[in-house]
Input
Amino acid sequence: MRLLAGKVAIITGAGQGIGRAHALAFAKEGARIVVNDLGTDPSGDGVSRACADAVVDEITQAGGQAVPNYDSVATMAGGESIIRTAIDAFGKIDILVNNAGILRDKSFGNMTEEMWDAVINVHLKGTFACTKPAVEHMRAQGTGGRIINTSSTSGLIGNFGQSNYGAAKAGIAGLTRVLAIELIKYGITVNCIVPTALTRMTEELPMFQGVGQKYGPEHVAPVAVFLASDLAKDITGKFVGVGGGRISAFDVRQTPGVRREGIWTPHEIADRINEILNVW
Output
């Protein structure tokens, strides 16, 4: 039996790149798919239905079931419409993959409010705007669910020139942790993929020059399928990194620290800072 047989999955930003790879892999495993894509360029400009339609055609021609959706994730109305598309077409929602994203890279000194807001709205607010109505339907259905978010090493580790993107992706990481705690009682798991992949958003980066398909988005999709399936029914609040053939995990750590009675002075902190930071 296929891993996602009978499931209904929404994948945002599924017209190209990682989202497209997710959609094709989910459909191959038996899921019925809502292919959401606004059809913008990597910076979020322009609108086209062609990308979503092409992926839907690819799925249906292979014998799967899929419908397109062209709404923006960056508004509550858009998020609600995306979820409604699944309910209207397939009667339920089991899986939400928050994948839609754009880039407006610039060093912080040259970052504008418009660049900041555009990226935060698509990534962070977009994750909220789709997850909120999805959770409401999952809870009403009473059969649990899977939410898979998308973070980035830019948010978990940092990267020059991506303060807006990094802040959004760090926010998604925090949201994932909180939702995992809140939703487990409803049988809804919430996990996060941290991908490293060659897509149109990353093709200009030096690390991807000449790598071919070694870091293609098809390497990322199996992790999403796993997290969406019953194989991962007991896994929640986790951050799974994937790039090429390597799969790893990201986590937050707290050092053992140091303790004393009373209030520390700045000089005392300085004397023991290496021990506090666990750096030797």
Remarks:
- The radius of gyration is 20 Å.
- The longest strand covers residues 188-196.
